[in-house]
Amino acid sequence: MTTQDNLSGAPSEGLIPKTAGTDSILDSILSQNPYFSAGFGLMGVGVALSGLKRSTTLLFNLAQRRLLVTLEISSKDRSYLWFLNWMSKQSRKNSSTNQLAAETSYRQLSDGTHQVDFALVPGPGNHFFKFQRAWFQVKRERDGKLIDLNSGTPWETLKLTTLSRDRKLLVELLKEAKSVSMKTEEGKIVIYTSSGGAEWRPFGQPRTKRPLSSVVLDQGIKENLVADIKEFMGRARWYGDRGKRVHKYCTVVFLFRS
């Protein structure tokens, strides 16, 4: 009888027959189970937020490229010090600038005393200022991993950001920074020191020229030195064309500024 029952399609003992209601039972379990519903809901919210984040990032980058312009100045560029000097004067007028850095210049005078000058310049971080009715953002970045081999200081960059419509003001800003820096040096002597390589950087603040009458030497020596300097300055091209060294002139300049 067992063989006949199997041949006739009767179910074997211990097996659960598959009926049409199995799919409906599974659907009811998934729909009525709050854990499954919450999981699918969170998944949908996550996908939606991820898409929204990507869209927002793309729109922000597109708007930044279209509406903003950024100028980068490295610490190797000459205008770097000009702009920092200009910004230091702006920070004195605008007391809201809280991120400052100190630049100290130390000098020992001939009488044994010491002269120390402090200059407060914008420190690393973000700064905002207004120039000709346009707002600018300045970001000073310092890379601790990169070192300038000539000066031994960390590599720094300045990033100036403003609206694209004010692009022309970037050049005007650099021109004004140069003009302000040149005015501080007008009628004064700027001392340059070697950083150990081929680069020379200003040392401290520009100093007032020492009157020639304050230089006391034996009779005739001062006059001969002045005449020698004038002769050298008049023949600067001759020295340059022949590659002559200028140790004598440098020694005289050091004597008069000491």
Structure description:
It contains 8 helices and 10 strands. The protein is of the alpha+beta class and 258 residues long. A 4-stranded antiparallel sheet has the order 1-6-5-4. The N and C termini lie far apart (126 Å). The chain has helices spanning 2-7, 21-32, 34-67, 78-93, 168-185, 221-234, 236-242, 247-257, and strands at 68-74, 100-108, 114-122, 125-131, 134-147, 154-163, 188-189, 192-194, 200-202, 207-208. It is elongated. It is 46% helix and 26% strand. The chain folds into 3 domains: 24-67; 68-188, no CATH class; 210-257, no CATH class.
The share of residues in helices is 40-55%
N/C terminus separation: 126 Å
Q: Which descriptor suits the 3D outline? A: elongated
Task: Please outline the major beta sheet.
Answer: 4 strands, antiparallel
Low-pLDDT windows of residues: 1-8, 10-16, 251-258
Estimated structural class: alpha+beta
Number of DSSP strands? Answer: 10
Rounded Rg: 38 Å
- The number of distinct helices, counting runs of at least 4 residues, comes to 8
Series of H and E elements: HHHEHEEEEEHEEEEHHH
> What's the rounded overall pLDDT mean?
74
**Total separate domains:** 3
Strand order in the largest sheet:
1-6-5-4
DSSP strand content: 25-35%
Protein name: BCS1 N-terminal domain-containing protein
Organism: Puccinia graminis f. sp. tritici
Pfam families: BCS1_N (PF08740)
Domain BCS1 N-terminal: 43-215
